[in-house]
Amino acid sequence: MLKPLYIIPARGGSKGIPGKNIKPLGGRPLIAYAIDAARGAGADDRHIILSTDYQTIADTARSLGLPVEYMRPAELATDSAGSRELILDAMKWADSRGIVYDCVVLLQPTSPMRTADDVKGALDLYSPDVDMVVSVTPAATNPYYNCFETDPESGFLHISKGDGLLTRRQDAPEAWEYNGAVYVINPESIRREALGSFGRRIPYVMPRERSIDLDTPTDWLVAEALMSQNNNDPQMLS
Hints:
By secondary structure, the protein is α/β, with parallel strands linked by helices. The chain contains 6 helices and 10 strands, in the order E-E-E-H-E-H-H-E-H-E-E-E-E-H-E-H. Helix content is 26%, strand content 19%.
């Protein structure tokens, strides 16, 4: 039985959607959905770390019943701070408290349509001989079919991969994009190298309707519409 450590990153300096981590979505603060997903996947609150530098975000999580003892250092709350650094700092804090875990689950608040079953599904694919299980969705553009690059010398477009002769998208190899919803990470792998350097990554596939990643006000409107359509309950999309 796996013992995951759940990390929910929620810094206070969002620019695309100001205050988004505690902004009400479907009548609840955004971070509530990430906390629900962790708890629904079987986490006890001791194994859920909210990584924030912002007292109001911490207080909001406490109002949802989540104890918040860890606060993210200011130097890890800038635009330039990477995911690896904040994960390692949270892991170090957990280690210092004697919290036992054998994998790390990163749940970004900006994926509110992710369900507890998505988290469980990704965990089911994890084993200690992989670096990471990561949630993906079919790519909006396929590098073999409709994704192009500009030749630096001629300025002409050319297909990103392959010979460009495919006439039907379904004939192209499958292509995936990260949707930002679930990362199940090997602790030893992230101690050793950055996430982008991982060579052993396994995809957990999610449908596009559960793959919305809140980055712009338009994304927020789409999420609000989906929540309203499904009675404010993302589980209805599972």
